[in-house]
Amino acid sequence: MASSTEFTKDLCTPAFIVDLDIVRRNSDAMLDRFLRLGVQLRPHMKTHKTLECADIMTRGSRRCIVVSTLAEASFYADGGYDDILYAYPVTADKVKRCAELSERLSLFHVLVDNSLALQELKAWPLKQGKVWHVWLKLDCDNGRAGIPHCSPAALELAKEISETEGMDLTGIYAHCGNTYGCKGEVQIKAVAQETTTLVLEFVEKLKAAGIQDVKSSIGSTPSCSHPVSDMAMLNEVHPGNYVFYDVQQSLIGSCSLEDIAVRVLTRVIGHYPHRNQLLVDCGWAALSQDGGGRLPTGYAIIESHPELKLVSMTQEHGRVEPVSGKLDFSQFPLGSMLSLMPYHACATAMMHPVYIIHSKGKVVGTWTPTRGCNVMRGCVCRAGAGNLREDAPERLRTADWAGARRAPKTNLISLPSSYALPLQHPTDCLIGTR
Q1: 34 vs 232: CA distance, rounded Å
Q2: How many C-beta atoms surround the C-beta of residue 172 within 10 A?
């Protein structure tokens, strides 16, 4: 990671910065790991929610991904992606959107863990001869979504899916989120082994019941960072955080601090000797609070300054003080930068509308993530027809961009991010959301 002093002085803070070289290294390591095992990697997009990072994670195939929201699903479909798994228990309010995506794409998968959800899908038969591609969400002692693996109802629900006209029981999906309670590789592998075994045993039960060709998939960044040999018997895995990693993953044992690709840059905006504190411009609107009480350095690791602690945050402010002793304020002039390693990269990334991308100490571009849960939001981009790709629709090329630049937010021109060119400079004027 380049030091903050190597970035342009006019970079507005707080800023979410991404080391492109580490992202590529992390992505390649995961892809190659499961290529050797003969298992399909279906990377999860929830951590970054960008087209650019997705292209890296899929090596340009633009296929076989997992999303956690319909906003993400629409965003990636608009961006040319296919074979998308919406890994969230489907409910009645989302069936219409799921149907539209299923009819639009060659492969769109949904997740169910209860019979009521299945009835909602039954009530909405797909057009054009399409079938619902359904994955059964199995809870393998993680204790979140999913029908318990040991429940007789799980097998009954699987049978009902497989026997329903217009539906295909495509796979069994389990999230081994209980790896997040692990400390070290041995514990991670124990959970990975248990989850793998339970999923494979369930697939064998399906075969015994005459249900064939059902895929098996488990995933979490810890389990996929340290896979057990039996995972080679799975069809797919679906980790996501690994492309960025974070302090939490380093504490679990998934990675080292050197593997963390993201930082939040913040500036010193105040000296307060009477309380032995610095004030910085990063609050909980720019950095997740997950790390509170978990680190000796407060809510994050302050890079190159183990003697400092981010003790508290309000919406736009952070208080920094020494772990012990008196603070030497001369080391941290007003306007100087500190680099924060986030405890939780997914939650922190969600707070930033633009990521600053750097490589070898230089800013090389920006990535614009999608946002929201249900309504697709496109890019935040520089206003002007000159910032559109050549294949952008005529309605965008002839739009009144000058008027939009002056308009209130509610009247902004709707611009899907797949038609926008990347920002040329991180301090460019940002306008337009959808």
Answers
A1: 8
A2: 27
User: Fold match between 4-13+256-349 and 39-243?
Assistant: no
Report the relative pairing of strands 15-19 and 277-280 from DSSP bridges.
unpaired
Q: Residue 410 CB: number of other CB atoms within 10 A?
A: 5
DSSP assignment string, 55-122: HHHTTT--EEEEESSHHHHHHHHHTT-EEEEEEEE--GGGHHHHHHHHHHSS-EEEEE-SHHHHHHHH
Q: Are 73 and 49 in contact (CB under 8 A)?
A: no
Q: Which two tokens stand for residue 87?
A: 């890994």
Per DSSP, 418 falls in state: G
User: Looking at this protein, which amino acid is placed at residue 418?
Assistant: S
Summarised one tens digit per residue, pLDDT across range 184-242 is 999 999 999 999 999 999 999 999 999 999 999 999 999 999 999 999 999 999 999 99
Is residue 145 packed enough to be buried (19+ CB in 10 Å), middle (13-18) or exposed (0-12)?
middle
Alpha-carbon torsion 369, 29, 348, 188, what sign?
positive
Round to whole Å and give the CA distance between 120 and 31. 36
Contact yes or no for 21/266 (Cβ under 8 A): no
As a whole number of angstroms, the distance between CA 380 and CA 252 comes to 35
Nearest CA to 49 out of 355, 360, 408, 397 is that of 355
Name the helix (H) or strand (E) containing 204: helix 185-208
Whether residue 14 is preceded by a cis peptide bond, meaning omega within 30 degrees of 0, is yes
Q: Where are the domains of the chain?
A: 4-13+256-349, 39-243, 378-434
* Confidence band, pLDDT 50/70/90 cuts, at residue 390: low
From residue 153, give the alpha-carbon distance in Å to each of 200, 234, 397. Answer: 17, 23, 54
| CATH architecture type of domain 39-243 | Alpha-Beta Barrel (3.20)
Q: Which helix (H) or strand (E) holds 267?
A: strand 262-272
CATH match of 4-13+256-349 with 2.40.37.20: yes
Buried b (16+ CB within 10 A) or exposed e, 174-199: bbbbbbbebeeeebbbebbbbbbebb
Residue the block writes with tokens 């996501």: 240
| Cα first-last separation, the chain | 33
pLDDT at position 379 is: 42
**Global confidence as pTM:** 0.86
Q: Give the residues across from 341 on adjacent strands.
A: 301
Q: How many Å apart are CA 158 and CA 172, to the nearest integer?
A: 9
